[in-house]
Design brief:
single chain; alpha+beta; 22% helix; binds adenosine-5'-triphosphate; ATP binding; Mo/tungstate-bd_C_term_dom
């Protein structure tokens, strides 16, 4: 990877959009260099599509600035209409023209019908493995094939930026990962700057170079998928990416006591309620030996005993639910492969302390 910083192809600064007196996009800023896929990730209604529409130019912001290759396309003094923004769009319903063949759909945004157009259409159809369907009509294609035509059509005019709004959500779940990977390959090949909107963390993790995590109109965290997963900014950010367990405690002298021993919680005044968050795969399980469990370790702290309530096999892993003896709370542990202890079995749990996140409590149980 090059060490020189890439100049942004798309730059969005302090974007704001208000509907009915309510800001649905607030102070949104980010930039995307060529060849990078950025995912705007967040729950339904958090303002993702509105942000996309502002960048596409089909809606206008109440404040902020949008630049493409350093040139403003939308700010207080300039407004470039959508068709002159060199921005490609791809939506979840693909919106193919039913009366045009696959090749005609792909050629739609290209000027003229000469040899260059034919070459570009041919090149893209080859890349999306649809050359043999060039003369077919959309209704004769599968959902996955239609998605690939839509992608080829969006990329045909070599847009500087491609905006994708939930582009895989209309597809059969079993096909999605394969199509995501193929799409990613093509996007990287074309070197476009991509902003992909999704509410699915799995999709963002699989596709993104950078994730922008959005909540209630604002970007609450940004970074590589690894960083968002491993260093969430708060409890809700942790919970967005997987099931979580929460140990509740109260700070006493920079420590928070829990059933798993004391946690260092510096920087929080005495009496602060703390949530210690841990993902199910970072709980360790050990057997009960006549009422005794494993010895405490520096890494895992003190073990605590729980009773199996339920165990389910989920395919790649098993999820075991424990009722903790000390306080009756429920903790979930995920274990690779098949591990289905009987309900009522006592077992000992330990938690990987290096994988815990400590946050001030948010008030939820
Ligand atoms: N034209 C509009 N007029 C009034 N309110 C709007 C308008 N467009 C969007 N909203 C509101 O703005 C908020 C954000 O909507 P938006 O579609 O951007 O969310 P989203 O994160 O894309 O959600 P989803 O994933 O469900 O599409 C919602 O509360 C929505 O009702």
């Amino acid at each position: 990877m090059s060490s020189t910083p890439l100049s942004p192809r798309l730059e969005v600064q302090n974007l704001r959009r208000v509907f009915d007196g309510q800001a649905v996009v607030e102070d949104v800023s980010f930039s995307i260099p060529a060849g990078q896929v950025t995912c705007l990730l967040g729950p339904s209604g958090c303002g993702k599509s509105t942000t996309l529409r502002l960048i596409a130019g089909v809606d206008r912001p109440d404040a902020g600035r949008i630049c493409v290759d350093g040139m403003p396309i939308c700010d207080e003094t300039s407004y470039v209409p959508p068709e002159r923004r060199a921005i490609g769009l791809m939506f979840q319903d693909f919106a193919l023209f039913p009366h045009l063949s696959v090749a005609e759909n792909v050629a739609f945004g290209l000027k003229g019908g000469g040899a260059n157009t034919r070459a570009r259409v041919g090149e893209l159809l080859e890349k999306v493995h649809l050359s043999r369907h060039a003369q077919s009509y959309p209704h004769a294609l599968s959902g996955g094939e239609q998605q690939r035509v839509a992608l080829a059509r969006a990329l045909a005019p070599r847009p500087r930026i491609l905006l994708m709004d939930e582009p895989f959500s209309g597809l059969d779940e079993r096909l999605r990962d394969g199509i995501r990977d193929e799409t990613l390959g093509l996007l990287k090949d074309e070197g476009t700057a991509v902003l992909l909107v999704t509410h699915e963390p799995h999709e963002a993790m699989r596709m993104a170079d950078e994730i922008l995590l959005m909540r209630a109109g604002r970007i609450v965290q940004r970074g590589a998928p690894y960083n968002l997963y491993n260093a969430p900014v708060d409890r809700a950010a942790a919970a967005f990416f997987s099931d979580i367990n929460v140990l509740k405690g109260r700070v006493r002298g920079a420590l928070t006591p829990t059933p798993f021993g004391d946690f260092l919680t510096p920087g929080h005044p005495d009496g602060t309620e703390i949530d210690i968050v841990i993902r199910p795969q970072h709980l360790k399980i050990d057997f009960d030996r006549a009422g005794r469990g494993p010895n405490p370790t520096a890494q895992d702290g003190t073990p605590a005993r729980g009773i199996v309530e339920r165990a389910r096999f989920l395919g790649r892993e098993s999820l075991v639910e424990f009722r903790m003896e000390v306080d009756g709370s429920v903790l979930r542990a995920s274990v690779p492969n098949v591990f289905l202890p009987k309900p009522g079995t006592p077992m000992w749990l330990m938690i990987r302390r290096d994988r815990c996140f400590v946050f001030p409590a948010t008030g939820r149980a």
